[in-house]
Amino acid sequence: MKRLSLLLVVMLVLSTVCGLAIAAPKTIKVGIVNLPPEESGYRQANVEDMNQVFSKANGYDAKQTNTADNSEQMAAAMGYIRDGVDYLLISAANASGWDDVLLAAKRAGVTVILFDRLIDTDPSNYQAALVSDMYYEGQLATDWVLANVQAPRNVILIRGQLGSAAEVGRSAPLLKAEAEGKLNIVWDGTGGDTWSLEEARRVVEAAIAAGKDFNVIYAQNDGMAQGACQALEAAGIRFGKNGKVKIIGFDFNRFALRNVQAGYWDADVQCNPRMATQIDQWIKSGNIPKGIVYQKEIILDTKTITDDHIAKYGINPDPGRGVITR
Amino acid sequence: MPRLKARFDRLSHLFLPLSVLVILLLINLIKGADYFKITMVNRVLYGNIPNILFGASELVILSIGMTLVTAAARGQDISIGESGAISSAIFVQYVLNAGEVTIWTILVGLLISCVAGIVIGAFNGTLVSFFNVQPMVATLILFLGGRSIAFIIDGKVSPILANPISNQIGTVIKGVPIQTPIILTAVFIVIVSVVLKVTNLRLYVEAVGINPNTARLNGINPKRVIFLTFLLMGICSAVAGFIAVNKVGRHDSVNLLKFIMMDAILAVALGGNSLSGGKFSITGSIIGAYTIEVLNRTLLRLEVNPEAIKAFKAVFIIILMVLASPVVRVYAKKVMDKAKAFVAGKAARQTGRLKKAVVSITDSSVKKEE
Lengths: 326, 370
Prior knowledge:
The complex is a heterodimer.
Chain A: H1 2-23, E1 28-34, H2 41-53, E2 60-66, H3 70-83, E3 87-90, H4 99-108, E4 111-115, E5 128-131, H5 134-148, E6 154-159, H6 165-179, E7 184-190, H7 197-209, E8 216-219, H8 222-235, E9 246-250, H9 254-261, E10 267-269, H10 276-285, E11 291-294, E12 299-301, H11 307-313
Parallel strand pairs in A: 1-2, 1-3, 3-4, 4-5, 5-11, 6-7, 6-8, 8-9, 9-10
Antiparallel strand pairs in A: 10-12
Helix pairs in contact in A: 3-4, 5-6, 7-8
Chain B: H1 2-11, H2 15-31, E1 38-41, E2 44-47, H3 48-55, H4 57-73, H5 80-97, H6 103-130, H7 135-153, H8 164-170, H9 180-198, H10 201-210, H11 212-217, H12 222-248, H13 260-270, H14 282-301, H15 309-324, H16 326-350, H17 356-369
Antiparallel strand pairs in B: 1-2
Helix pairs in contact in B: 2-14, 4-9, 4-10, 4-12, 4-13, 4-14, 5-6, 5-7, 5-12, 6-7, 6-12, 8-12, 10-12, 13-14, 14-15, 16-17
């Protein structure tokens, strides 16, 4: 038995080596222009995922530039086009000003795939774009509120950086539901440009001081949801699974998912940073769709969440089962 | 009487920051009379005032350091948020690698992070005092690079500090009716005031800030004093970072204490301190820091639209700063003097003919000016 398994292992290794040796001459050259991993936990997971999938072992010769400077990003993209890459993957720091780069890529016959962030340009200038649909994420959360909280639904909305794609998309379905009379937004605040926990805490404290009656907190990222909970806890207001106020966060940080699992929060909406596998499939199959493709994302609440979800879809470190991050 | 007057003169520089704070508090009171109401929630004091004290704790500590740096170096340290992010990252790493977390782990961690803060302060201080780099330019280096350093120390994630002691430092210790960050801030303020009382720090810093050459001729080494203020700034950043990270319960190198230097500089200015160095008032800066916190919350209380909240804050600050500017102050003093002279003149006219000549002189001069 031992010998058999050894044989199997040897065969496996040999076949991989042979496979690599055969695959080696036709590696796919890819240039990746991305934002720096220190931007956020989301970006860190995104960059890590890109590195993992677009590796030598996977048949790619990938070069990567991570910078938050739009002009540096463009210079890097131009460099990759000159180097003669087959595919150019871009997550732009700034949505405008990319036309020259995209035209140069077109002329050089480089296939451009946008990921995570869209660019303001004619759709014919790139092949495909794989992004998160912020509106859909907001819709998931709003639908959850409508299905799980009985009327009157009085919501505190805590927005992210005003005008950002995430803020606009995640606010819209809730505002639409209010316009249709399905819920009331009793307090409308923002965590500011840094999606700040402290600012979110102040917003909720102000709402409490103003004597507002509310039973839902709709915070557009996990940090702000945490800040809101700190304010509630200090004020002695019960929230979560057995409390009066329902807490919803966004982004699938693992600490947030553990809070949901423990019933400390109620729900969290995914914002998936792991796009590389999908793009890899497109490239390998040669069947790249045209235009904008939205990722399928999910919402998890206290009933649906499992350890598997947390391990597979979460970002940032896992505090461990049963640990609550207050 | 003269004693009282001397004391009043000494406190007169606090008139300005206090008046700004009082105006804001009045606005809040008009909005709702229950503004100062404090209740007990789970045996802890709760209300607007505890919330303000809690929210401003990091800013207060940082504005103390910023006051010293501003006074001596005649410039500002803009890397305080980053410095706090780095030193608290080191604190978190120490605690996470220490195994079982006891109060000693936390204290040793705080000590280590203070040392890290001092190292960062020494870096900034060396550039400023020994290489004569402008403070804002010298600290720009860490302002730009600091968060990347913190991110690497964090192991490229945002580690979680989920232990009961950290939680108690960030919220309340069982049995104590006041939130811990408020207590820590008070302790810090007491330590600073004791240090200023028993050492010559204030004298040296003010001497260097007013004129470094004169200070040098009088046997004070301006370079050393400026260097020292940056070291103290480093300690302030480390303590602020410690409080901030325990409040949040995880280390988010991207957002921890982000852009707080703006508010700290503003607190120094609102405190009636000159941003070009010299005489300083820590009390003023502390009041300034609380004023900023009150301002932030006032805008929320007035239910300013979130889109407009920044514009409102800017307008408020402009009005406050113009009121606080020396030009307005000199003008206000002139008006006051005139009014005093006018009143004195009237009183003198009624008291007899002997002083009549004098009165007519002052009277006419007042009229001329008018």
